[in-house]
Predict the 3D structure of the following.
Amino acid sequence: MKIAVLVALVAPVLAVPRGKHLVELSLPGEQNYNPNQSLYPQRALRVIGSFQSGFTEETFRVEAKRQCQAEPACSTVIGYLQEHSEVVDGSKYPVWFAWLIGGARATAADFHHANGTSHSFIYTINE
């Protein structure tokens, strides 16, 4: 029984790929960025979404980075708070979104300001 508990505790640690280092891409001005067409939809791997009440900004940022690190093809993750979302049950409440993006390292040219979003963050691979 002790061995089973030890394996259960160690397994999640081993599931995170080694060697991928994500660094924050700091962009100027208001932090209300969305991905440009250079990233979405062509390079989008998947999206993560949660009602604002499910995460703080920091805990959602940590989860988004963790998911990108766990996805071998992920090279960039952009997250933001959407004021309203028709995607998540037609919500009239704020929703956190994070896009996992594959391919080459993203640059500032891959993002644009978007009305209705705030608290954006971007992490990309350090090449």
Remarks:
- The chain has one domain: 22-125.
